Structure formats: C-alpha cells, structure tokens
Amino acid sequence: MKKAVVLTYNTTSKSAKYLTQQLEGRMITHMEEIRPDECIINWGGGYFPSRAWHREWLNKPSAICNAVDKLVAFHLFKEHGVQSPFWTSQHEIVRRWLQEGSIVVARQTSTGMMGQGISLLTTPSTPIPSAKFFTKHVQHDKEYRVHIFKGMVINLGYKRQLRQEANLLIRNADEYNWDFYYTSTVPYPVIHEAIAAVQSLGLDFGAADVGYQTNRSQAWVFEVNTAPGIGHHTITKYAQHITRYLRNLYD
Predict the structure, then answer these.
(1) Residues facing 225 on adjacent strands
(2) Three-class HEC string of 207-251
(3) pLDDT digits over 74-102, tens only?
(4) Per residue in 6-15, pLDDT tens?
(5) What is the pTM of this model?
(6) What distance in Å separates the CA atoms of residue 92 and residue 29, rounded to the nearest whole number?
(7) Straight-line distance from the first to the last Cα atom of the chain, in angstroms, rounded to the nearest whole number
(8) Whether the Cβ atoms of residue 59 and residue 42 lie closer than 8 Å to each other
C-alpha cells in the first residue's frame, strides 16, 4: 500500500496535523521531501511546482487553484451546470440588482477567506465601491457544509447561529457568530450540487459550502474548501476514506 504524506501550505493547521496522525503518515511543506513510495495528500496547497504534478496526488495543485480563486470557481460552476450565485464586475448590473430589491455582496478579493474583503450593498442609494466582483445574495435560510471524497458524501454539517445578534447575511465564524455542527440529513439538492461542484473543480476531495432556500427547494454553492478547519470526527472520516483509497490503488 502506498504511504500517505500530507502536504500543507500551513504548518500550524490543526486539521492537517490530525489528519497526518490518523493516516500514520508524515506532514511536509516542500516537494523535495517526497519519497517514491508515497501518495501526496494535498491539504490546500495550490502553489507547488508543476514539475511534480505527475506524481500520485489526491488534490492536484491546479485543482486547488480552481477552488481558491472564487472567480475561477464560479466560471467552472457555470460551465458544468452547478448552481451558484449570479456574479458580475459591472456596476450597471449591480445597480439594477439593487433597484430590483436584491442585496449585493461586494468582494474586494477573489481569494479571501472567512468573510475577508466582503461588504454588503442593501439599497439602491448605496454607493457602489470598487471591487474585484459582486455577487447577488441568494436569500438562503439554511447553509450546509458537505464533505466529499471521490464523489461520495463522507460527512455533513450545517451552520448554526451562536448568538442572537449573528449576521444573517454573512454566515461566517468568528465575528459573524456562526459555526458548523454535524447533521445526518440534508436536502437532496444540497447533496447534488455539492458533489457536482467538487467534481467541476477537478478535486478528489473537498468541503462544499451550500446555501439552501427551503420554500423553493433550491441550493447554491458558495465555495469549496480544500483545507477546511474541521473537528476530529470529520478528519477521521477523511482518513478512513483516504486509507481505503490507498489500499485499493494498485489492486
């Protein structure tokens, strides 16, 4: 069986460290440390040199680059028929959305995390800032995180409000007062779009964040995380599926 080596862009990542322990492998940060008998488990790194991409990988750097840049991801979602928020870089379209009563999310960066670079435009009179791009808010009432490995759902989570004053429009952790909790069931459209999103980016595994509007039974993919900060239960699920994959690699 191939041995596992966890390649991470962040040496302080708790999830990468725990995954390494579960796999009884090694954690590294440089390609030069790879051994011939190892399969690379790429935990969120999109910048590694292309000369090594012919090796055995789970999540090649090129696929992670697709996920990290949200504009690239939205293009690929559209190309593969994955439901995701409408987006634009044109101010006249943003103004029309606002006049129609929609809320618009201005994004200063296409690679921000945890709400970085996000601001909300809520009325037609709101000044439109300079931004990398804008997305039309989908007015979802629920949000899920679906963990996918090789086209299979391996764990499910939903975002739960931690405090009454939690921001209902930006459902990120920390200052927005939201966090993920485990669940056993989610609506079918959420599962369908999550699997399609991960596959559209060329990923072997990933955690898709999916908004859901209950009264319309409609799901939208917001992003796919390739190094999600997750608990031991979910990491164990990843480790189990990765181990099974490595055992069957050459059978």
Answers:
(1) 207
(2) EEEEEEEHHHCEEEEEEEECCCCCCHHHHHHHHHHHHHHHHHCCC
(3) 999 999 999 999 999 999 999 999 999 99
(4) 988 887 888 9
(5) 0.88
(6) 44
(7) 9
(8) yes
